[in-house]
Amino acid sequence: MELHHRAAETVPMTNPDRPAPPFGRALCAMVTPFTPTGALDLDGAGLLAERLVAEGCDGLVLGGTTGESPTLTDDEKTELVRAVRAAVGRRATIVAGVGTFDTRHTVDLTRAAEQAGADGALVVTPYYSRPPQDALEAHFREVADASGLPVMLYDIPGRTGTRIEPETMLRLADHPRIVAVKDCSYDFLGTQKVLARTELAYYAGCDEHILALYAVGAAGCVSTVANVVPRQVADILASFEAGDTARAARLQLRATPLIEATTAAGLPGTVTVKALLNALGHPAGPVRPPLRPATPETTTQLLSLYKNFTAL
């Protein structure tokens, strides 16, 4: 319960019917900073995490898609959790990306994340092998049974090739440690069906859906663009929660050009966000291959959109 109380204090509750979110409301899908030679930059990770928390993020997701999880070693994932926990203490929750295409490996990473001090585990749908729904359900249950960490399911069929179908979500909701979903399904109807019938805490995993999903009862967001505009992302949710829905809508719409440029313009969000962070002098460093850095022209365009948005 300490986790829930800590998260609830960050954004004042004005609606007693909305349950306290399990991992906070404004979560950032944090990039993983690297040194110029591509090594893990733990000092940079700590500095970036401190800035994100100071500017409104009450949760950090480490080693996820934006965190370049496929290129991180198991030891690096654990070291990252330890370093960020040391930097932010208990001012924010830490959700560790532990999902792989191998159930045994995912179980091992979940246990390691728990020992390193994570508050939760982000478990992506197993990719490449495309398991059927019954196998998918068994995978998530085995991972959830393997540790004491609460689990956030990560539904992103555009990357994994497999959807967590709503009926599967409904069954998984009965597991006491499966408590949340990072929703990148682009199935708003399916999401609402699960929200209406379960207590799963849904988090918008696509920045263009932050306000829309929150308005129908989601817990918050896991945002990529929050790496560069954490205060503004948190403000969308805080404005809606305070009853100023018009302001929340204005903020969401004003963010649209930047959101489109960072997450929907043909480059992975990791590439665009790291380009912006580097240009702004924040810890980020290069991306790891096979990703390639943004061109100077793309970086200039991103920086212009960032300045236009933050000047409003």
UniProtKB/TrEMBL annotation:
Q: What class of enzyme is it?
A: lyase
User: So where does this one cross the membrane?
Assistant: none
One GO location term (cellular component):
cytosol
- Gene Ontology terms: biological process: diaminopimelate biosynthetic process; lysine biosynthetic process via diaminopimelate
Keywords, sorted A to Z? Amino-acid biosynthesis, Cytoplasm, Diaminopimelate biosynthesis, Lyase, Lysine biosynthesis, Schiff base
- Documented EC number(s): 4.3.3.7
Q: What is its main location?
A: cytoplasm
Q: In which pathway does it act?
A: Amino-acid biosynthesis; L-lysine biosynthesis via DAP pathway; (S)-tetrahydrodipicolinate from L-aspartate: step 3/4
Q: Where is this site: Part of a proton relay during catalysis?
A: 65, 128
Q: Which CDD domains match?
A: DHDPS (cd00950)
Q: Cite the active-site annotation.
A: 154 (proton donor/acceptor), 182 (schiff-base intermediate with substrate)
Record InterPro entries: Aldolase_TIM, DapA, DapA-like, Schiff_base-form_aldolases_AS, Schiff_base-form_aldolases_CS
Q: Where in the cell is it found?
A: Cytoplasm
Name the Pfam families on file: DHDPS
User: Where along the chain is pyruvate bound?
Assistant: 66, 222
What's a Gene Ontology MF term here? 4-hydroxy-tetrahydrodipicolinate synthase activity
Q: Which reaction does it catalyse?
A: L-aspartate 4-semialdehyde + pyruvate = (2S,4S)-4-hydroxy-2,3,4,5-tetrahydrodipicolinate + H2O + H(+)
Gene3D superfamilies assigned: Aldolase class I
Q: Does the keyword Cytoplasm apply?
A: yes
How it assembles, according to the record, is: Homotetramer; dimer of dimers.
Per the record, the similarity remark reads: Belongs to the DapA family.
Q: Describe the task this protein carries out.
A: Catalyzes the condensation of (S)-aspartate-beta-semialdehyde [(S)-ASA] and pyruvate to 4-hydroxy-tetrahydrodipicolinate (HTPA).
Name this protein carries in UniProt: 4-hydroxy-tetrahydrodipicolinate synthase
Name the species this protein comes from. Answer: Streptomyces shenzhenensis
